[in-house]
Amino acid sequence: MKQAPSPHLSVEEYLEGELTSPVRHEYVAGTIHAMAGAGRRHNLIALNLASRLRQAARGGPCRVFISDMKVRVPASDAFYYPDVAAACDPGDDQEFYLEAPCLIVEVLSPATEAIDRREKLHAYRTLPTLMEYMLVSQETRQVEIHRREPAGDWTLTLLEEGDPVEIRCLDVTLTMEEVYEDAF
Question: I want to staple 27 with a disulfide (CB 3.0 to 4.6 A). Which of 14, 35, 97, 141 is the partner?
């Protein structure tokens, strides 16, 4: 049996379709991928991070966004929906997507973990403004921070129970208890 090729959408068609679609889609090089819903633990962790980061950003130039705000990655011709993102560039003012985030957070799910660790990690690292990409486990209290150092190289820090979660982009340090409150 021969499968029909999937339609290739332009960026404009994708963005227009997302405005009315009941399902969110990520866009990669003309192809869209429907987003699955997240469970209770995933939502609690993302909400904990977003609320604490929003509190840290309050009154300053940075803004914190939750899962309905896309991030545009021109080098990959992609739009992704991270769980949490922060942007501090006042020129990053598109209504429906960020172009210059300094922080991106993905709460890992079994269905998306491989994509978050490979495809998105590679794509996000091409964003010149990105300082930190956080991968947060929902199975155990563990946070990975991929961080761009001042010289431009990337380092990986693995954090476990009791370790402080330093987020340089917003100049804030969280505890693991704050990240995982009510999730376990």
Answer: 14
Q: What's the total number of domains in the chain?
A: 1
CA 49 – CA 64 distance, rounded (Å)? 10
C-alpha distances (whole Å) from 2 to each of 5, 10, 47, 65 are 9, 25, 44, 42
Stated pTM of the model: 0.93
Q: What is the CATH number of the domain that holds 155?
A: 3.90.1570.10
Domain that holds residue 118: 38-180
pLDDT tens-digit map of 83-114: 999 999 999 999 999 999 999 999 999 989 99
Please write down the long-range contacts of 163-171, taking CB distance under 8 Å and 24 or more positions apart: 167/53, 167/56, 167/103, 167/132, 167/134, 168/131, 168/132, 169/62, 169/86, 169/88, 169/102, 169/103, 169/131, 169/132, 170/53, 170/56, 170/57, 170/62, 170/64, 170/86, 170/102, 170/103, 171/56
Banded pLDDT at 2 (limits 50, 70, 90):
low
Whole-angstrom distance, CA of residue 152 vs CA of residue 130: 11
Percent of the chain with pLDDT over 70: 96
